[in-house]
Design brief:
The chain contains eleven helices and eight strands. The chain has 244 residues and is an alpha/beta fold. β1, α1 (22-32) and β2 (38-41) form a beta-alpha-beta unit. α4 packs parallel to α5 and α7 (147-160) runs parallel beside α8. The chain binds orotidine-5'-monophosphate (OMP). Keywords: Decarboxylase, Lyase, Pyrimidine biosynthesis.
Length: 244
């Protein structure tokens, strides 16, 4: 039980630390204390603070989702994943659009790092269609509608390529679960509790709805980190998913 929110952490909730300095990250992590066990380090924080962001969180006993969305030729991705996997992250992202060879290479890179370090292999997640796309924006890139078809195509390819799961919108979770089964990870950003604004997210759902629809984990950033009272925001989210 946490002394700040009065409610225990839940590994299904990942808080996105989208800030531009190590100190800002540390403030959020200190403020949320034991109520959050899983954090996401994305491009903004990693490019600002570097690998110390990951090592700090691991030293604090937190799980880390390192979201760098790699997308390059298989050889480059294999060795880049091996390099970042050595930091001890639990989840790492690549873009599913990089294709089968690239996703297989990502898993190989993660396995190499795990063998060297003696730690468990980090899970590789493949990003399908970003949650900031709506139909109009997707069609502008040449994408075929409905978006769901493309998400399912990439999820099937990711599953066949041996990655551990996908990142998709909560609205696609049920259909992905039907195709990919368990224990495939379906990690969903685009989560908006009823008290939060949608910002630039387009394909969204509430935390409880996303979990009901088959999401394994929820990525939540601004509704917590930009809230007037982040501890209260976490507490409300945890209560909502527990039906309290
Ligand atoms: O890979 C991701 O985590 C990701 C994929 C996606 O399709 N949409 C998406 O929003 N994200 C990330 O999830 C987080 C969502 O943050 P908020 O919109 O502030 O809750 C951000 O850090 C995004 O980089």
């Amino acid at each position: 039980m946490n002394n700040k929110t009065g409610i225990a952490a839940d590994d299904r909730i990942i808080i996105a630390l989208d800030v531009n300095s190590f100190d800002k990250m540390k403030n959020i992590v200190d403020m949320l204390g034991d109520s959050v066990s899983f954090y996401k380090v994305g491009m903004e924080l990693f490019y600002s603070a570097g690998s110390q962001a990951v090592t700090y969180l691991k030293e604090k006993g937190k799980h880390v989702f390192l979201d760098l969305k790699l997308h390059d030729i298989p050889n480059t991705v294999e060795h880049s994943i091996a390099a970042v996997a050595r930091l001890g992250a639990d989840l790492i992202t690549v873009h599913a659009a990089g294709g089968r060879g690239m996703m297989e290479a990502a898993v190989r890179g993660a396995s190499e790092a795990a063998k060297e370090s003696g730690r468990p292999r980090p899970k590789i997640l493949a990003v399908t269609v970003l949650t900031s796309f709506d139909d109009k924006g997707w069609a502008e890139t040449g994408g075929q509608l409905p978006i769901l078809n493309h998400v399912l195509r990439l999820a099937k390819l990711a599953h066949e390529s041996g990655v551990d799961g996908v990142v998709a919108s909560p609205r696609e979770a049920t259909a992905i679960r039907e195709i990919c089964g368990e224990p495939f990870e379906i990690v969903t950003p685009g989560i908006r509790p009823s008290f939060a604004q949608s910002n630039d997210q387009k394909r969204i759902a509430t935390p409880s709805r996303a979990l009901q629809d088959g999401a394994s984990r929820l990525v939540i950033g601004r509704p917590v980190t930009k809230a007037e009272n982040p501890q209260k925001a976490v507490s409300l989210i945890l209560k909502e998913i527990r039906g309290e």
